Amino acid sequence: MKKICTLVLALLLALIFTGLVQAKDGVKKKRVRPHLYGRVIIDNYSTDIGLAPVAFDHWVHRANATCRLCHVDIGFAMAANDTEITASDNIRGFFCGTCHNGKVQYDGKPLFRACSEESSNLKIEECQRCHNNGETPDLEEKFYKFSNKLPKERQGNGINWEQAVAKGHITPIDYIEGISVEGTDLAIVDDFAITSKIEGMPDIIFSHAKHTVWNGCEVCHPDIFMGVRKGATTYSMIDLFQGKYCGVCHDTVAFPQSGCKRCHTKL
Ligand code: HEC
Ligand code: HEC
Ligand code: HEC
Ligand code: HEC
Ligand code: HEC
Ligand code: HEC
To answer: Which of 206, 223, 195, 203 is CA-nearest to residue 67?
Structure first.
């Protein structure tokens, strides 16, 4: 009986909450296809100078590198277009150019280079690997080839990323010589439950250990969570739906908030 009540409550709340989110955005959110979940279109300059905007896909990259490596060591912002990447940044080996420099090896070949200031013998197809406004017809096939062998999930990319790492299917790197600083790892803090404050709604189990695999400590502390003391930051489900706190990652890159039961697990 209690279980049924919980389910009904969760459903009702889901309806109310999605209503709230839609009212805020003014448009109905369409479910994103698995290979497009986590895509960011970067366009501070490209359109203005006659190039196609850049499509960056998280799934391609998170299989190879941790969130921490890109968002702390390399310094990408955690909001689309906030980094203001320029062509000369990339050419000088920053941002995308940290890896896409024609030298870093991947799969036995050097990774293709980002940006160029030369206009002579410029091969536009090379630019279009990134400057393609999201028109990437081969990507879906590549995605299914890649995700086939990985543990499945219903939402987001349809991949259980946590299991994919735990079972050794993928081993994202967390360190680049000359970019990353060594020896900053802190001891992992215990998992804890966050009470949901509403009777019948299961509490949330937050795992520091599982999050640290991808995020280290610095992705979350102090920018997203002050984290000095449990309960010091207060947030509600509405904050999450607005893209704050857990919602910074859950709905954009990590599994989406429609997966109520993946967070509200403690009965
Ligand atoms: C290879 C580098 C790389 C990796 C690895 C990476 N990101 Fe990102 N991420 C980016 C870039 C680039 C952007 C866009 C930044 C910009 O436009 O200024 C971005 C944007 C984001 C955003 C904002 C999305 C939006 O729609 O506004 C979030 C949230 C995010 N990343 C979370 C993560 C999480 C969580 C992980 C690990 C699972 C991760 N990222 C792994 C490079 C990376
Ligand atoms: C930490 C290193 C790293 C950084 C930083 C990085 N990439 Fe990549 N990128 C890779 C690797 C490795 C691959 C090859 C992955 C594969 O083929 O499975 C790749 C592949 C790609 C692809 C090809 C996807 C396809 O169609 O196969 C695109 C496009 C791309 N990156 C764009 C970007 C952009 C744009 C940025 C900067 C905003 C960026 N990358 C930053 C490592 C990186
Ligand atoms: C690995 C991905 C990648 C590739 C390949 C790439 N770029 Fe870029 N480029 C970017 C990103 C990311 C930005 C920032 C986009 C924005 O904000 O509009 C950018 C921005 C630019 C800009 C505008 C910013 C500025 O500083 O003026 C120019 C010009 C540019 N690229 C030229 C090129 C040319 C020419 C090529 C092909 C030789 C190329 N890029 C290939 C990722 C790439
Ligand atoms: C995905 C985000 C995330 C990551 C990554 C993360 N934390 Fe936290 N941390 C939290 C949240 C959420 C809380 C609870 C804060 C709150 O409720 O205000 C917290 C709380 C804490 C607390 C207070 C605990 C208590 O019992 O009062 C400490 C200490 C802490 N974190 C340290 C760390 C360290 C060290 C790392 C890296 C090994 C780390 N955190 C990684 C999200 C994160
Ligand atoms: C990414 C993890 C996550 C997902 C997914 C998630 N929640 Fe929550 N939920 C939380 C956290 C964290 C809180 C805040 C707990 C607190 O009050 O400290 C919360 C709080 C709540 C509360 C208590 C009231 C409030 O606003 O604080 C309700 C009800 C709730 N969630 C319903 C849902 C429903 C329904 C879904 C699915 C549509 C859902 N949640 C999905 C993490 C999640
Ligand atoms: C900095 C980004 C980030 C933030 C902030 C964040 N998460 Fe996550 N979380 C992830 C990533 C990445 C994963 C791996 C799974 C995936 O990508 O779908 C994950 C996985 C999880 C899982 C599944 C782990 C498991 O047990 O299988 C739960 C539950 C979860 N997060 C809850 C939360 C809650 C609750 C909060 C807020 C208190 C939160 N997360 C904040 C990035 C984040």
So the answer is: 223
Other CB atoms within 10 A of residue 201 CB: 16
The CA 240 to ligand 2 mean position distance, Å, reads: 29
Q: What is the pLDDT of residues 132-151, one digit of tens each?
A: 999 999 999 999 999 999 99
Residue 169 pLDDT greater than 50, yes or no: yes
CB atoms within 10 A of CB 24: 11
> Distance (Å, rounded) from C-alpha 16 to C-alpha 21?
9
Kindly tell me if the per-residue pLDDT of 118 is higher than 90: no
Q: List the residue whose alpha carbon is closest to atom 35 of ligand 2.
A: 56
Q: Is the pLDDT of residue 223 over 70?
A: yes
User: What pLDDT does residue 226 have?
Assistant: 86
Task: Choose which residue among 162, 208, 218, 233 to substitute to test ligand 4 binding: the one with the highest number of ligand atoms within 8 A of its C-beta.
Answer: 208
Ligand 2 near 130 CB (within 6 A) = yes
- Report which of 201, 200, 217, 219 is spatially closest to residue 209, judged by C-alpha positions: 217
The best mutation among 92, 130, 133 to test binding of ligand 3, ranked by most ligand atoms within 8 Å of the C-beta, falls on 130
